[in-house]
Design brief:
By secondary structure, the chain is α+β, with helices and mostly antiparallel strands. The chain has one domain: Sandwich (Jelly Rolls). The chain is 21% helix and 27% strand. Strands 1, 4, 5, 7, 12, 14, 15 and 16 form an 8-stranded antiparallel sheet that branches. A 4-stranded antiparallel sheet has the order 6-13-8-11, with no helix packed on it. Strand 9 and strand 10 form a beta hairpin. The radius of gyration is 17 Å and the shape is globular. The protein starts with 5 loop residues before the first helix and ends in a 5-residue tail after the last strand.
């Protein structure tokens, strides 16, 4: 049976997301966890060497956004270009897809590790075709440890699901905020190895980690076409083909 069903494809079109439970193989899951903690350690040392506690939306010992380090990791590269991710791309983007971004998102055991309501498209800074975010749970996810909350299209108050809302920057956290309504969203309480698949137009947030353990996810993002910067002179992110005419491509050398 296909990983992505026709019903899930329709849910993605209609509400902006769907969930695949327990689809990441255990061997890949454990390898991604090990890489995650290695990179958290590297990031701590980098921030300590620079004498800083905040770097963009990363906050030392509280939450981490560790982006685009797969070139130094065969484990991450293999996962990003796997048949699993290619099949998700086929179901959501079509016959052509590019890997544009990836990052570990880690919450330490800290009550100040929430992340504000936003669209991933709100971080691009200009209009672009919607892209795909695959939020891969490396741990069992709960409200207590700060799982992602999704706001379906039908409840977000926009006139069109293609709209990118102007985001404001939240003081202190540096988070961009695009939704200020009262809807709490739907929590993704899923086991480790699950993937929350959503559009870059979909509003989402996450709460603080109130447990004693790390809450780790790996975010892999793909687009149907290269995304350029606002004046069209260079790429925004990357544009490494994973699908061409429906066929899975090998990762770049």
């Amino acid at each position: 049976m296909p990983v992505v069903s026709p019903e899930q494809v329709e849910e993605y079109r209609r509400e902006g997301y769907f969930i695949l439970e327990s689809v990441i193989p255990e061997s890949a899951l454990e390898a991604l966890r090990e890489e995650c903690m290695r990179m958290v350690g590297d990031f701590d040392r980098e921030m300590e060497a620079r004498g800083i506690k905040t770097q963009g939306i990363t906050h030392y010992k509280k939450r981490y956004f560790i982006s685009n380090r797969s070139a130094a990791s065969p484990i991450m590269t293999e996962f990003l270009f796997s048949e699993l991710m290619a099949e998700i791309g086929r179901g959501t983007l079509g016959e052509t897809a590019y890997r544009i971004n990836e990052q570990y998102v880690v919450k330490a055991a800290d009550t100040d590790s929430k992340f504000a309501w936003h669209q991933d498209s709100g971080y691009v800074g200009h209009y672009h075709r919607a892209y795909l975010s695959c939020w891969c749970a490396l741990d069992d996810m709960s409200v207590s440890n700060g799982t992602v909350f999704i706001l379906p299209y039908s409840r977000d108050g926009r006139s069109s699901s293609d709209d990118i809302i102007d985001h404001t920057v939240e003081e202190r956290s540096n988070d961009k905020v695009g939704y200020k309504g009262d809807d709490p969203g739907d929590p993704a309480t899923v086991p480790a190895g699950s993937i929350v698949v959503f559009s870059s137009r979909t509003f989402h947030r996450s709460g603080p980690n109130m447990t004693d353990d790390y809450r780790r996810c790996y975010l892999a993002q793909y687009s149907a076409e290269p995304i350029m910067n606002q004046d069209g002179t260079q790429l925004w992110g990357r544009a490494e083909p994973i699908l061409q005419a429906g066929e899975r491509m090998n990762p770049p050398v």
